[in-house]
Amino acid sequence: MKISRNTLLTLGALIIFAGFLYVAQNMFNTYILRIINLCAIYSIFAITFNLIYGYTGQFSLGHAGFAAVGAYVAALLTMSAQQKEANFFLTPIVPALATMQWPFLFAIIAAGLLAALVGSLIAWPALRLRGDYLAIATLGFSEIIRVLLVNMQPVTNGALGLKGIPPYTNLFWSWGCVVITLFVIKRLTNTSYGRALRAIRDDEVAAEALGVQLARHKLMAFAVSAFFVGVAGALMANLISTIDPKVFLFFLTYQIVGITVMGGMGSLTGSTIAACLYTIFLEVLRPIESPFTIGNLHVPGVPGMRMVLFSILLLIVILFYRHGLMGTREFSWDRLFEFFRGKKKASPLTNSEGEQE
Amino acid sequence: MLPKKITLNLFSIILLIALMLSACAPAATPAVNSGDVPETGDTIVIGVYEPMTGSQAAGGQQTMQGVNLAYEQKGTVLGRPIKMVLVDNRSDKAESATAMTRLIEYEKAVAIVGSYGSSNSMAGGEVSEAAGIPVMGCSPTNPLVTEGKQFYFRACFIDPFQGRVMAKYAFEKDIKKIAIIKNISQDYSVGLAAFFRTSWKELTGSEDGIVADVNYQDGDQDFTAQLGAIKDAEAIYAPGYFGDAALLMKQAREMGFKGLFMGSDAWEAPELISIGGSAAEGAVFSSHYSAEAATTAASKPFVDAFTAKYNETPSAMAALGYDAYMLVVDAIERANSADPKAIRDAMAATKDYQGVTGSITINETGDAVKDAVVLEVKDGMFKYLSTVKP
User: Fold this and answer.
1) C-beta atoms surrounding B3 within 10 Å
2) Which of A124, A246, A267, B299 could disulfide-link to B294, CB 3.0 to 4.6 Å?
3) Could you say which residues from 237 to 266 on chain A have a Cβ atom under 8 Å away from some Cβ of chain B?
């Protein structure tokens, strides 16, 4: 009875959300749309990072690399032959790719699959490492991917980057992918696999003693995570419509880690909310960089001020809310009802479905 | 951990604020039909997007010195006040695209200036093209920036020309053997090296003169491996940023290299001399402009005004920023309208505009056709050597 109520509510929320997207796509100007799209892309980044770190406890810093793979695959598969010819004016493109042009859906899937493949390849040797060592190894792999992109000129156009990628990404693609990502990862974490992942996070030795196959589970977490990061990379390439290897510097991974920490390790809802807040705040805070006057105090415009303010916010979160916005809790209808009824039940980990936005 | 109630309450407050903000934002920015004159009252909004923070902040800030000076001198057009809005693009592609959308949708800019860094400009260009708002780039020299774009122009020359300038210089100096050392991770460096090679081939009829073509990466400090590969070259062409170039020159001299160093406009920074020291002495490079060789009537007053305001000689980036802003104002004047389409047409028709960096004519691809200068490092200063016509 109760489950069906929650499922109904979830479906209802999804329909309302789809309606909102439809209205937004047609009513809002490109500035607002771009921000909402970026929210979605950062959400996917944060959710997938949460799967690797929040749920499995593997501190991997390879996100920028996976995103780069996804972005380049999608870009090369969706660009028209003329655009490719114009882009590769220094070194001609490899003939096999020159005229290849796929529909966006297949390009996204290909981007995800290739990123997953790269993710698994990286996970393979890196699995023997733990903690800081894993972080350094994955960071290294991510840099290797970037250096490869710079040097494989006939395929990636090297440092010159690609431009004229068709701007296919709209709200339905981006938020559609967020919903799918949330659904898949939520489902995954509710299965025995998910519990095994959490067991690995809490104590690898104990988990192994209980019969959890460490390598297999970690590999799966990496592959699933990398798949969706690749998808997000593809969305990003087709949103900005130009990419180069410098987009995927380590700074991107920093941002993702920051967002995930803010949202709460182990909370997918938290990641989504934090990603949206991060993207929206950075834009809303723009006016503080231009000169303004408070009373008699004239404040000259200082570029970078919003980053300072943002860092302070991050510090506050880390100092006072060590578990982030959501901790390990998830949004759930039950919790919502409890909240309104004013009941205070101690529920450590609510894991009912009912995920939206 | 805080009591749960407080956490929950705080969380709901934050959510509430976020909701309010996202609700306000669209209401404040009604959609504008492109082509109409945006309703901004009497003021004409000129947007500027530059990297004020991030890895390219130095270049963005130099550019803004020039733009700010220009804005001070020319604050009205067509009898209407200009409102200049600067938006930081954080040296980041995604941010550049967002910054451009913000200028167009939120600030209602009718024309835009920017950006330092070709990769930033390429991201912004996709947005402005779709919205039909003209942009005047200050210093993005990558040919791809204006390629296929109807609404993107630039006040600077492009890399193929700059590569040719130095190839010609070497050819005229009767240098027979040249080594190219480029930064493979900078589009700018890769492009220049390629165009240098092409021009060299055109001039000498073969590529035999290029005895080595080696790469390094961003952040490399040790160039001994690359320098080991240059064989018996009489000159090194190293189109990269000044920091790399200075280290490279030092190490080359230490390894006994006696020949000539040649570079590009990114060398023009005091650090080239302060880091390179005596090794940088005699190095030559192409640039946009020299305060010494005031080419047009506008140059001298600009240098004076700039020195009075900032107490330093204007860099090439500042001069280009000044020119880019003035070109936009000039286009608005000639269009006699604040309609983006009309401004675009006027920009495309720019001919023999007397800017501070020289006489500027916009060609059919939207690039400025103008002179380049060759500078030499002499007695710890940048000295003007010669001017090369397009």
Assistant:
1) 8
2) B299
3) 239-247
* B132-184 per-position pLDDT tens digit: 999 999 988 888 899 889 999 999 988 889 999 999 999 999 999 999 999 98
Q: Kindly provide the ipTM of the predicted complex, given to two decimals.
A: 0.84
Nearest residue in chain A measured CA to CA from B31: A29
Chain A residues in contact with B15 by the CB 8 A cut-off are 273
State residue B29's pLDDT score.
35
CA–CA separation, A332 vs A186, rounded Å? Answer: 12
DSSP state of B104: I
Spatial CA neighbour of A196 closest among A184, A208, A185, A186: A208
Is B105 in CB contact (< 8 Å) with chain A?
Answer: yes
The whole-angstrom distance between B227's CA and the closest CA on chain A is: 20
Percent helix, percent strand, percent coil in chain B, to nearest 5? 45, 20, 35
Instruction: Give chain A's domains with CATH numbers.
Output: 10-285+304-334 (1.10.3470)
Query: In chain A, which residues have their Cβ closer than 8 Å to the Cβ of B32?
Result: 29
B6: exposed, middle or buried (Cβ count in 10 Å: 0-12, 13-18, 19+): exposed
Give A243-309 as a DSSP string.
E-GGGGSHHHHHHHHHHHHHH-TT-HHHHHHHHHHHHHHHHHTGGGGS-EEETTEEEPP-TTHHHHH
In DSSP terms, A242 is beta-bridged to: A163
What superfamily would CATH give domain B44-157+295-370? Response regulator (3.40.50.2300)
Task: Give the pLDDT confidence score for residue A357 in this predicted structure.
Answer: 41
Distance, C-alpha A83 to centroid of its chain: 28
pLDDT band at A350 (very low <50, low <70, confident <90, very high): very low
- Give the relative orientation of helices A250-263 and A131-151 as an angle to the nearest 10 degrees: 140
pLDDT above 50: residue B19: no
Domains B44-157+295-370 and B160-287 share a fold: yes
- Reported as a single tens digit per residue, the pLDDT across B338-350 is 999 999 999 999 9
Residue from the list A28, A86, A150 with its beta carbon closest to the beta carbon of B185: A150
Q: What are the pLDDT digits (tens) for A29-76? A: 999 999 999 999 999 999 999 999 999 999 999 999 999 999 999 999
Q: In chain B, whose CA is at the least distance from the CA of A339?
A: B8
- Nearest-CA distance A98 → chain B (Å): 18
Distance CA A181, CA A356 (A): 11
Measure the CA–CA gap between B29 and B103, rounded to whole angstroms: 11
Q: For the domain bounded by B160-287, which CATH number is listed?
A: 3.40.50.2300
pLDDT recorded at residue B231: 79
For all residues of chain A together, what is the average pLDDT? 88
The neighbour count for residue A151, using CB atoms within 10 Å, is 16
Q: What is the mean pLDDT of residues B282-304?
A: 86
**What span, in angstroms and rounded, lies between the C-alpha atoms of A331 and A94?**
48
Length of chain A as a residue count:
357
Tokens of B20: 């309010």
Q: Which chain A residues are closer than 8 Å to B119 by Cβ?
A: 161, 242, 244, 246
Paired sense of beta strands B235-237 and B178-183, if any:
parallel
